[in-house]
Specification:
Rossmann fold; 8 helices; 43% helix; 24% strand
């Protein structure tokens, strides 16, 4: 039985994200992702301004006047959400856990997809594949995706992005728009990402909290490692400690971003406690410009 409070939370996310999609993002999503190709629809009489390259010469000869071929985009896409649900996503200092930010973000992408008649699937992972929801359409299906993101209790602690990507590469029979949603606090996923990049339209989405980039000066504090399950004592009054933490984080982020730049993939950077509309809008505009 799903708790009533969770159902209310799902409903709040549905209301907030569906309004966001209808008011801001639906058209941008459509223009950012192309279908699988162009499909012949019909022929019609030539009109001034039509491209002469679309003239159907056989039909034109038969009727004694020019006709042109009309095509439509074969639109339906499969959108796969590959979502990190490891314990590091239970962290948040801006009034919102990373897990909740992820749920809202994925809901927005899913509602954008079904609004454009695309299918949406979900694979959650930790150091193993946790849950698989096959791609489907419809609001009820999106609500199930949101519930899984909020309600599922993962069995694994750590993060292994490569395991999840390799699983998708084995089971996916067609090209998909693949969103990998994670804080990317992991290693050894480079080869798997490169392979997925060749097979799918891959978009990494990074989820971070401001306190993961720098820690404030608040004296001696106990910090609990959610994935390792241990507590450490940190003297945040030490400038050397704070600078060391910030420097290590900055180097990890730079290495990750450098990898994605080398692979020429578009990325979306989302921060807890901030609106997800702005980074999504920037991404859609950039994609539309490239296409």
């Amino acid at each position: 039985m799903i708790p009533r409070e969770l159902l209310k939370k799902v409903r709040r996310i549905q209301i907030r994200t569906s309004h966001m999609v209808s008011d801001v993002l639906a058209g941008q999503y459509h223009s950012a992702f192309k279908g699988r190709g162009m499909e012949f629809e019909e022929v019609r009489p030539y009109q001034i301004g039509d491209d002469v390259r679309t003239i159907d010469w056989n039909v034109s000869a038969r009727y004694g006047e020019p006709f042109v071929k009309k095509f439509r985009e074969e639109r339906e896409l499969t959108v796969m959400l590959l979502v990190d649900v490891s314990r590091s996503h239970l962290f948040g200092t801006q009034g919102q856990l990373k897990r909740d930010t992820v749920a809202e973000l994925c809901a927005t992408l899913a509602f954008s997809a079904i609004t454009n008649n695309d299918k949406v699937g979900l694979i959650t992972f930790t150091d193993r594949v946790e849950k698989v929801v096959p791609p489907r359409k419809g609001v009820r299906h999106v609500l199930r995706v949101i519930r899984e993101l909020l309600y599922h209790q993962p069995a694994g602690r750590d993060t292994d992005i490569a395991v999840a990507i390799e699983y998708l590469n084995r089971v996916a029979t067609r090209r998909a728009v693949l969103f990998i949603v994670s804080d990317f606090q992991a290693a050894g996923y480079e080869r798997a990402v490169r392979i997925a990049r060749r097979r799918h339209d891959l978009i990494p989405i990074t989820i971070t909290d401001p306190r993961e980039r720098e820690i404030p000066n608040i004296g001696l504090v106990e910090l609990f490692d959610l994935e390792a399950g241990r507590t450490v004592l940190v003297d945040t009054s030490s400038r050397r400690v704070r600078q060391g933490f910030a420097g290590q984080t900055a180097r990890a982020i730079e290495a990750r971003d450098k990898l994605f730049r080398r692979m020429d993939v578009d990325t979306i950077d989302v921060t807890t406690g901030r609106s997800i509309v702005e980074p999504l809008t920037r991404f859609f505009h950039a994609r539309r410009a490239r296409l």
